């Protein structure tokens, strides 16, 4: 283990907010760039202190971000032969101390290290036992003696928590850990977890038998008793701390959390336990899930053992067995589980029993693996006398245009589509009301007996009637009138566009970088990466979270900020820039949708001093092709804007305002044109679909 933290080229790029190719260029062009200290020829590592000093001398960073300092300190405590999480659980335990006993650390912080070496571990053990139970210190692998390196870590953690709060600080550590171990970890995104949590409602008890980092348990109210199991005990410890930190600090201990290690299929840690809701995204395509030794397990419905290659169906039956009568189970599964011939008997038993209530096709990118359009299965364990035998088949893939993708999903629309259809269907099942009307191409209630055939294929697309055209004749006529109005307005806007003329005899204008302006106090820079985590949907009264996709699409924020108090919020006069260099910068106006929104993780925020810099002039320059190209880095096919390298001409503020007025007119014209394009696309597609389906004629 190195005596000083070392970083790779990728991590150097992250520190400076550039692409990896920029780091390679620095190594070639600057003979004083630090020499490799380790690693290999293809992936060298460099001493962090030397890299940080060089970047600061070159003006590429003002100071190493505190989260990076903390992560590097965590890395020095990690045993290379041990678990990748290293000391993250011990760091989380200290943040839990700051959360639940905020007066404890200030009382200890002034003590000498010799006293802290024993006093701090004793305080951590006391807190974790009282909050999480007697097994918590062992599960979290808390140190019995705090060495100097660990004490340096807790001091950094205290500073990080002072900036963002203990909860947001821990979320940053988890995000950094997941990023560093992306091949081994595939956490459920908060938007997908929120969808499953909304399906569960407000249950008294919840179980996730494959909880990972606890995203699904985090999506239900903290007042519920939350139980879980995780095959990796360290991941389970991280999830336990996460749930404890998200529980209100004044909640008396022990908290209603019961997370245990072990494989739920082969070593069920909650035998006989029943929960009002069971939420799960199980591991997929497991080959060694215990098929041979579990032949006579009581969890198998009607004694039908899932085939060896159907591990996902084994998880479905495990979740159903732990669901209380009348309770709900929701699982994210690969789409092949609905149609593979080997699983036909198990699917048939789920239909005959009335347990399977809904199969929802989600767009690709909703949850990992992101390239696969997953299915959401919703089950209810039938209570005595429950003879409901209908299944809701729902295709929600229209919530992502084209081929979908993580950044293209319209999460509010997806939530509305799924929850509205499910609530109407579930009300019919529990209260005996009429089933909701079918929506062609979207959802349909199908009698279970109609699905029982030689294949018992539950894929929604196979059973839904084709979608109707995107509107009737009257609706399309109304849309055409709206488009005509918008085009007429564009003609008026065209008259407002500035009339350009060539400039002759212009000399060279001196320039200044955004980084230099920030150091002089002419503007504040909040670079991409300082944003808060988000979740959807956005409820009334919540702080909106501004994402790069919102800016690129010119739409109002759709997500809610999960850490608004610790995140910069946009205000009139700010300039917002997506991290992708090809996107447009936008100025925040009073009372527009971005006013008051929290900064997302891939959005730069510039706050100019209006006495020195005109916001519209600044935004117009940021949209310029050549200047943006020179301030961008290119790596792995992605163009990323290095905001501090961006060069601006040195102009009097009066001249800036004159040019800013012209830039604003151009931006207004572009926004109106974008809205007209959206209307035109909807109109032409509706006309095409209506003529093709025979429901309209010319």
UniProtKB/TrEMBL annotation:
InterPro entries per record: DNA_methylase_A-5, Restrct_endonuc_typeI_TRD_sf, SAM-dependent_MTases_sf, Type-I_RE_MTase_Subunit
Keywords: DNA-binding, Restriction system
Pfam families attached to this UniProt entry: N6_Mtase (PF02384)
MF annotations from Gene Ontology: DNA binding; N-methyltransferase activity
Keyword Cell division: no
SUPFAM superfamilies: DNA methylase specificity domain, S-adenosyl-L-methionine-dependent methyltransferases
Domain DNA methylase adenine-specific as annotated: residue spans: 169-403
GO BP: DNA restriction-modification system
Protein name, per record: DNA methylase adenine-specific domain-containing protein
Species this chain originates from: Kitasatospora gansuensis
Source organism phylogeny: Bacteria, Bacillati, Actinomycetota, Actinomycetes, Kitasatosporales
